[in-house]
Amino acid sequence: MSEVVASPGGAGYRERRPPAALARHLACTWAGRMGPGGETYVRTVLPDGCVDLLWDGDRLVVAGPDTGPVDVVARPDGFFVGVRFRPGLAPTLLGVPSSELLDLRVDAADLLGGERAARLSERLSDRLSSPTSLRAVAAELADAVSAWLPQSGDPDLVVEAAVAALGEPGVTRPVAALAERLGVSERHLPRRCRAAVGYGPKTLDRVLRFRRFLALADERPAAGLARLAVDAGYADQPHLTRECGRLAGATPATLVVSTGPDV
Description:
disordered C terminus; Arc Repressor Mutant, subunit A; alpha+beta; 3-stranded antiparallel β-sheet
């Protein structure tokens, strides 16, 4: 789950580096504040191969890996804080295969246990009740997750290596070639990827390439779509357009990353 469409009316969204102790497991901590306006509205999140643990002041939720765009109804003046697990690392701390969370939003109590989730929600509520920023609340959530590390499972080193290989800019790796490079069978690799990431290496490759396009478009707003497509690893601009339609339900030109004021 990764938000790329900013909410209107003075909303803001910021990602920050995770604590050093969680650098292997977390891609970032994040916080988003919805702007005023009197009416609910919809914000869109797009696939990134990650699993998020998030809190909105009422519910603690696990957002599984997405295969397409997800519209989230946001209330005026509301907020979200969260931690984002790197692709393949969520099962080590949440104790459930990512494939069981695919395209789902699950109450954290169903995974962590009711008492554990309640304690964490109370801890975040106490933090929010004192004069603080949403950034500090997100950091508090990360601190709670870091306390789970001693009891966490071991990451799948093969999947970590696969994610790293597929994340290399401009590199296309067929499953057979990737499996051979990692020393596992062509049948074995997809099974392990599905358990750790939520989907197999082919889909993961598509999602990571899509995220490269979004990052490049944000870094180089003056670049043309044809150049961005090639640099992100697409065969050509029509290939990029097809994939944006499948993964985001939008054309490349409309996928503009926008952020609001610091939260």
